[in-house]
Design goal:
The protein is an all-alpha fold and 75 residues long. Helices cover 56% and strands 0% of the residues.
Length: 75
């Protein structure tokens, strides 16, 4: 799951893939703004056929947060 999220973020935010670590903060370290976050949300929902509740989205600070949420859906 991490590799897919890493690829999506690197492409969307135009950052080097090695910058997209599990500990990287999406806004602070990767330079995402609110529009970038919404685009990520829509991409993940489309790619995985899921709906991410707004209250969960607010918890996404690091790449690891996103990966952990997606992993929790597979259980």
């Amino acid at each position: 799951m991490y590799e897919q999220v890493k690829e999506i973020l690197a492409r969307q935010l135009r950052v080097a893939p090695e910058k997209v670590t599990l500990d990287a903060q999406i806004k602070k370290d990767l330079g995402a703004d609110s529009v970038d976050i919404l685009q990520l949300l829509m991409r993940l929902e489309d790619d995985y056929g899921i709906v991410i509740p707004d209250q969960e989205l607010a918890k996404f600070e690091t790449v690891g947060d996103v990966v952990a949420f997606l992993d929790s859906l597979k259980k």
